[in-house]
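QUALITY CONTROL LOG
STEP: pairwise intake check
CHECKER ROLE: data steward
CRITERIA: each record must contain a sequence immediately followed by its structure tokens, with no blank fields

ENTRY 1 OF 2
RESULT FIELD BELOW
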Amino acid sequence: MSEALGRDGAKRFEFPLLLAGSIAFMTSTMFSAMKPLLITRFVEQTGYSPSLAGLAAAMPFIGGIASSFLMPWLFRHVGARSAMAGFATGLALCEAGNALVFAVPVLVLLGQFLAGICGGVLMGMTSRLIAVSNRAEQTFGVVDMVGVLAMSAMIAGFGVSVEWDGLRGAFCAAAALCALFAAILQACRTALPEPHAAGDHRQTAPLALDWRAAAIVAMGVLFITFSGLGFAFMITAARNLGMSYEEASSAIGIVLFVSAAGCLTGGWCAARFGPRMPLFAAFVVCALGWSIALHATSREVFLLGLTPAIFALQFCFPVLLALAGSLDSEGRLAAIAAPIIVSGFAWAAILAGLLVDRWGLGSLPYATTAGMALCALLLLAGTTQPSRREPGTA
């Protein structure tokens, strides 16, 4: 444990870290909140094809993957606090630029990609600080819950901005939000810890990635991907049961709001029981939930299955990040893993579309069950040896 974290911090949360983490996770959910609106509006306003519109909306997630390759260089040459403040400012500038060039496909794709890199670095560096902090599992749960709760508000806010000025309005709103985030991070950066025991990020040992780390990161990506298959088509499933768009959106919004409690529950369970058994249980609940929801013949049964399925998704995310952080005493693996794991949301939409086109909506619960079984095998492989820092200890 880094001495920079303080000698008496084992029994308390660190508010500046909670604030910075919440901002980073809200940045990630901002991309998710904008995605459905951008896909629809790019087609309506600029005449983009659906595939091009989907690519433009998915580019931030691809940029997030690219940011993981940038992390080792940042570890060696830039402190985590400086990287967070700098890339948060860069994200605001990218979104402002997108407001000017959204009608030019090449430029908006580039702008979205660069925004994804900035957001990925912000989330990764924050995850690194949390991973080596006191009460890491619970802190991941808190900041993830804040991000999930904020997403519902951002969806409504971006909807209003699109009504106001189309795509320009959406990107301007995103730029203003990110500028606020950057200002807050700049104000609190000196209160944030650095994750290096020696206090000099240039003297840290090279990061060694073994097969266990690869298994954990792969498991995280696959879990987000396969647990998100049904998520991509839950509105369609609700419509097939006779629900209107308004009814479906309202009911699913309530489920999403309630499921935010899964973030805190996941963090607590990881701290109390370690990561293996909570994740196994969540994999089973996720598979059963989507099987019930997507085979439902009534609205009540659909919502009955949807609730635990989405709860399991929210439950696992902080556990996955804490588990990745436990494999590296300086939190660098958590920094690399966070944006890669989040990319599963983009792959879920792509894979779900392919499966539905080929075999219909009924294929999704079977694919989800197979994916959860694969995740369980990777979890077993990745946790066969004790990690350097036992989950739940400070």
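ENTRY 2 OF 2
RESULT FIELD BELOW
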Amino acid sequence: MTQAVRDEFMRIKLTDQRNALTQEEKEKSDFFVIEYMNLLLSSGEATDFKDKCFCYWNISDSYAMLRRPTELYKNHLNFAEYVFNGDKIYRFWPISDCTQRFTLIAGGYENFWHDLYKVAVENTPITKENYRIAYETHRAALSVNSSLNIPFEHLKYYNEKFSEFLESVKSREEYSFYMLIFLSAQIKAFERNDIYIEDMCAEFFEALGNKDTATAYAVGEWEYFNRLRSTRNQAVVGITTAINSLIDIGEKKRALELYNETKKYGFPENTYVNKRIY
């Protein structure tokens, strides 16, 4: 992607400022992204495979933010068809985001997402070029929302495939991070209070003192999903996920003890956790 397109996208998306925006401003930003991405596709400015996928992904993401499942589904049909007719390595791209999945499920398109996932995981080799986006896909798959009806047999399938993925990446440097996310997802998806996640979180405490590194890529780019997360990012994301999973199954005491312990090592105050735990 050209730097000019990336800069314009970041200007419209207002990613870093989103929490400070009003709902009206957020919606306006999302509609601008949809308009701009469609313009890049229709004008022929986006011709490279990765650039087109970036446009499709962000159109779907904006519709997900707007909670418009039908429009999201229609765009995702085009996105998936385009990706699945290309190199197999890219097949995780359309199923790499949890918000998009939840929005599709809310609109009655759960089977559509599940079928994309099944084709991807059963036919896509895991390589050094795509194992990180494969992780994003498995994490999205095993995520649950109490307001959504997700078939239990699908969750069992996602759990099995996530476990198989972990076996294939044991030698990768992010393995412990992926395992922490996997166990946290199991806690919530299957309401398991027998997983003592605290010990694994403790392995990340020291990394909370490390410096974070900013990514040079825009959300939705292939390179964004396949970048190496900083050790601090892995620690913050992993521990946050674990704490929220404990809260979700009613283990607030354990969650609070873990939260307070992590703050001794530099874990940042989390508004969402604070709202749920106190």
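INTAKE CHECK: passed for both entries
DESCRIPTIVE NOTE, ENTRY 2: The radius of gyration is 19 Å.
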